[in-house]
From TrEMBL:
Residues 250-269 are annotated as: Disordered. It comes from the Bacteria. This is Amidohydrolase-related domain-containing protein. PANTHER family: 2-AMINO-3-CARBOXYLMUCONATE-6-SEMIALDEHYDE DECARBOXYLASE. It comes from Daejeonella lutea. The keyword ATP-binding does not apply. GO terms for molecular function: carboxy-lyase activity; hydrolase activity. Pfam families: Amidohydro_2. The lineage of its organism: Bacteria, Pseudomonadati, Bacteroidota, Sphingobacteriia, Sphingobacteriales. Gene3D superfamilies: Metal-dependent hydrolases. Keywords: Lyase. Residues 61-268 form the Amidohydrolase-related domain.
Length: 269
């Protein structure tokens, strides 16, 4: 079984997207043997009211039975937007969203902002994961309207050290760290936090150039297949698993990476 924990539908204002509807993504999944995809609506990153994007996603999934069987929706929530608590409750209880994605850089709040901490705690109390993206697109290819990633010392792409403060603040939540794009040297305490937290990375990010070394460093329970589709290509994340030699990962470990770790994180039987 193959579960993609990092995919999207919707539009990106600075790049033409393909395979960015449920219908087209499902065709892509069928072509490459992906059984289930965790999806969010890209539009929610740019709408002032993210709930409109969650409603769009909910309606699209409900438009065909084949979508509800193959897609696991995550809501996009902005904790500094008025009414977000009601939006979260509606997304989970009425729309059946199975997790939340948060975008501090795009929605302009600190990762340990009290509102962000409150949101993560509320998602934890629902028993659901919260997902953070290292980055959405390569910041070297940019529009003047895009967020300012790289000017100065504080405006830059994330690395793992930038995400760990929220894990430390709410250590009993469930975390998905997606598009692992920038390396960081961790202290022993930071490494211990990663290893003890209920946390997984997906396999889409550019930094994962040697999957076997990452498995040794973090553990085989810390990774799951992800594509970052439709922004990144559909095969790299899968090839990082399938290219592992038997001496690096046996079939049991590969099944963990293909679906086992994702099932555990998502609460699937």
């Amino acid at each position: 079984m193959l579960i993609d924990i990092n995919a999207y539908v919707g539009n990106w204002p600075f790049q033409q997207m393909k395979y960015n509807t449920c219908e087209l993504l499902l065709d892509r999944m069928n072509k490459f043997g992906v059984d289930i995809s965790v999806i969010s609506n890209l539009n929610g990153i740019f709408y002032k009211n993210t709930q409109s994007a969650n409603e769009e996603l909910h309606q699209e999934i409900r438009s065909a039975r084949k979508f509800s069987d193959r897609f696991i929706p995550f809501a996009v929530i902005n904790p500094i937007y008025a009414g977000w608590r009601d939006d979260l409750e509606t997304s989970v209880k009425k729309m059946g969203m199975r997790g939340v994605r948060i975008y501090p850089k795009y929605h302009d709040f600190g990762i340990t902002d009290p509102a962000c901490i409150e949101l993560v705690k509320r998602v934890r109390d629902y028993g659901l994961p919260v997902a953070f993206e290292y980055r959405m697109v390569d910041s070297r290819q940019r529009s003047w309207m895009d967020i300012d990633y790289v000017v100065g010392t504080t405006k830059r792409e994330w690395n793992l050290k930038d995400i760990l403060p929220i894990v430390k603040a709410v250590p009993d939540a469930k975390y998905m760290i997606l598009n692992y794009a920038n390396a960081a040297v961790l202290t022993p305490d930071e490494m211990n936090l990663v290893k003890t937290a209920d946390l997984i990375f997906d396999t889409s990010g550019r930094t994962i150039t040697n999957m076997s070394e990452f498995l040794k460093l973090y553990g085989t329970n810390k990774f799951a297949f992800g594509t970052h589709s439709p922004i990144l290509d559909y095969l790299t994340g899968q090839l990082r698993i399938e290219s592992l030699q038997p001496s690096e990962a046996d079939e049991r470990v590969k099944e963990q990476l293909r679906s086992g770790n994702a099932k555990k994180m998502l609460g699937l039987s």
